Each structure stands twice: as structure tokens, then as C-alpha cells.
């Protein structure tokens, strides 16, 4: 699991906004949610700490989800985050591709999600040049168990990318019993910023 930063717990208003953007097509929410994602990216790599270009690599939606929604909401959030980062020079490289079908993750526990996603993502050769010599931050809307971020990081490392961390808008709580509920997740955001 890469160092992961979130700006909010997946509960209340953040949860409602993410669901409205992702599932109900509220495209206008990409700007404020992208700004939140940019704050998480800044926590991963502070502006003064990236002398080489910074690349945001969004976790891809499945082809079925893109067809159903008419877009890839995570790609939209990554683009909005790159704009919010402004002069820091972050670019979005949609380098990850689904290599095989995966089951719906909603009803799977941590172990089931990890098994479901193992080896599911890859980076096509033509996308690798956009990652060379850059600091890569994996971005997604939400982290629950971390299995998706682990798989994305694995695929990027296998392609030779320098993955420095992951940034998400919101995170769920992870309890010691292994059960999850909406709320705070184990991340690197200071407690005052709503992510720890």
C-alpha cells in the first residue's frame, strides 16, 4: 500500500457529493471534488518537494461502468485536480488499463477484494513513456480496503514508474476487527484535515 492521503471521511456530505458525481452524473461537482483531491496530492508531495514533473494516474473505471455513466468520473476528478494544482505542473496520464474482468467489489471483504484485483491492471507499453522520470501519484475518488490502490501501484511499479503515493477525496474507517464503516481511514492526512 503506498502512502495514502484523504481529505475527508467517507460519510455525510463528502459521501453524498461523491455519489452524486459518480452515480448520478453531477458533472459540475468535478471542480470542488477535484480541488479536494488536489489537497490530498499536495499532502503526498508538497509543492516544493517535486523537482521533477508530477503525474497523476487515475484508477480506471471498468469499460462497463464508463458505458453506463457515459464517462470516467475518476479521470474527470484527476483532470480537475491537475487544474487546481496550477503552477506545480501536474499532468494526468491515464496509464492504467483493465487487463481482465473483475467482480463487483461492493460485497467483498478485504481478502476478497485483494484476490479479485490481483493482476487485473496493467500499463500498455505506449503509455510507459509518459511516466518515465516523473513522480507518480495514484488518484481515486475513495479508498475502502486499499486493494485497488495496491493493484494500481503494483502495475505502475512493474512498468517502471516511481509511485510516491496515492491521493483520494475520501476514505472509510478501518476498524481493528477488520470491519469497515463510513468515516475516517488510516491515511497520512493530519487529524485536523479530516483524513487520519
Low-confidence stretches: 177-196
Enter the CATH topology name. Rossmann fold
Structural class: alpha/beta
Principal-axis shape? globular
Tell me the number of strands.
9
Number of helices: 7
CATH class: Alpha Beta
- Strands across the major sheet, in which order? 1-7-6-2-3
Write down the secondary-structure element order.
EHHEHHEEHEHEHEEE
- Tell me the count of domains: 1
Could you tell me the radius of gyration in angstroms?
A: 15 Å
As a percent range, the share of strand residues is 15-25%
Span between termini: 16 Å
Percent range of helical residues: 25-40%
CATH-defined architecture: 3-Layer(aba) Sandwich
Largest sheet: 5 strands, parallel
What would the average pLDDT be, to the nearest integer? 79
List keywords for this structure.
single chain; 196 residues; alpha/beta; Rossmann fold; five-stranded parallel β-sheet; two-stranded antiparallel sheet; 9 strands; disordered C terminus
Describe what you observe in this structure.
- The structure is a single chain.
- The protein is α/β, with parallel strands linked by helices and 196 residues long.
- The protein has a single domain (4-100, 107-178), classed as Rossmann fold, CATH 3.40.50.
- Helices cover 36% and strands 20% of the residues.
- The chain has helices at residues 12-23, 30-44, 63-69, 73-85, 110-117, 125-128, 147-158, and strands at residues 4-9, 54-58, 91-92, 97-98, 121-122, 135-143, 162-171, 173-174, 180-181.
- The strands form 3 sheets. A 5-stranded parallel β-sheet has the order 1-7-6-2-3, with helices on both faces.
- Strand 8 (173-174) and strand 9 form a beta hairpin.
- The longest helix has 15 residues, at 30-44.
- It is globular, with a radius of gyration of 15 Å.
- The two termini are 16 Å apart.
Amino acid at each position: 500500500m503506498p502512502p495514502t492521503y484523504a481529505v475527508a471521511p467517507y460519510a455525510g456530505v463528502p459521501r453524498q457529493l461523491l455519489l452524486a458525481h459518480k452515480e448520478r452524473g453531477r458533472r459540475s461537482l468535478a471542480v470542488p471534488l477535484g480541488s479536494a483531491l488536489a489537497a490530498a496530492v499536495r499532502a503526498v508531495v508538497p509543492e516544493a518537494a517535486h523537482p521533477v514533473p508530477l503525474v497523476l494516474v487515475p484508477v480506471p473505471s471498468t469499460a462497463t461502468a464508463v458505458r453506463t455513466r457515459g464517462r470516467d468520473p475518476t479521470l474527470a476528478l484527476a483532470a480537475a485536480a491537475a487544474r487546481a494544482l496550477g503552477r506545480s505542473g501536474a499532468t494526468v496520464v491515464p496509464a492504467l488499463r483493465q487487463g481482465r474482468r473483475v467482480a463487483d467489489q461492493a460485497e467483498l471483504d478485504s481478502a476478497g477484494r485483494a484476490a479479485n484485483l490481483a493482476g487485473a491492471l496493467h500499463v500498455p507499453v505506449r503509455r510507459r513513456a509518459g511516466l518515465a522520470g516523473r513522480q507518480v501519484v495514484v488518484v481515486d475518488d475513495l479508498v475502502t480496503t486499499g486493494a485497488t490502490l495496491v493493484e494500481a501501484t503494483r502495475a505502475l511499479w512493474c512498468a517502471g514508474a516511481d509511485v510516491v503515493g496515492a491521493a483520494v477525496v475520501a476514505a472509510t474507517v478501518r476498524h481493528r476487527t477488520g470491519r469497515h464503516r463510513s468515516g475516517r481511514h488510516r491515511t497520512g492526512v493530519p487529524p485536523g484535515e479530516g483524513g487520519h
